[in-house]
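Notes from the 1:1 (GR / supervisor)

We went over the backlog. Supervisor wanted to see one worked example end to end before approving the batch request, so GR pasted a single chain during the call. The sequence is below; no edits were made to it. Supervisor asked that the structure be written out right there so they could see what the output format looks like.
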Amino acid sequence: MRNLFAFVLLQLLSTFPIFSQVIMDKPPRELQAVDVEEHLGEIVPLDLPFIDEMGKPVRLSEYFGKGKPVLLTMAYYKCPMLCTLVLNAAGQVAKDIAWNPGEEYQMLTISIDPSETPELAKVKKDNYLKFIGKPGIEDGWHFLVGSEANSKKIAEALGFKYYYVEEKKEYAHPAVAFVLTEGGKIARYHYGIQFKERDVRLSLVEASEGKIGSSIDRLILYCFHYDPSAKGYVLMATNLMKLGGLITVLILGGFLVMLWRKDLRKKM
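Structure output shown during the call:
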């Protein structure tokens, strides 16, 4: 059996050179360069200058410090596939969630392509505002462009590793969205091309330290905790049992009060 396995492996290595490179050496440069290195708890540089979709010079700090968490994405607006899927996922969450961007939370997208213009960013923004379909959210999702140096600085702070593929004239990058606190601290990473509305909502509640969301949202956050291995919020049995015990005590207390009042009326 061992000889058979060695023979099959040898055939694979000789038949598929890229497979040989991955197994015997290191992954191709593109694969090494595309990754997410989580920097939870670190603060992104908020003094970086960019240009918004209206052509106005801005600094990241303008979108922070207002008591609202920020849902941030790194993308480029001419991306033929993956960026669109990630932005679609962010737009779908903004559409599904009960809150409005600009009111309870802020949305921000930063281009990683220094050649892109505010005009292109404006077209992208208009498409997503139309897709979300909620009135009065024009100031809730901003699309920025800027220099390669500044885009790289924010990407490095987030741990967002991307790579320009010269042959294809495209960027290779991971699929991820970031939730930051109002002070620019990295709170959560959401991966993939679909984001669970509950996970994003709870991470925004968590990042706001309970300043947004209903009492039910905060109660759900008490019963759920973020599991890095599951990349999402899972039921926390200990807190659920505590909550169940509290409810039981309240019900029992109410029942005893009712009996006490009934007995008191009989004596009167």
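Supervisor's comment: The CA atoms of residues 34 and 172 lie 6 Å apart.
Batch request approved.
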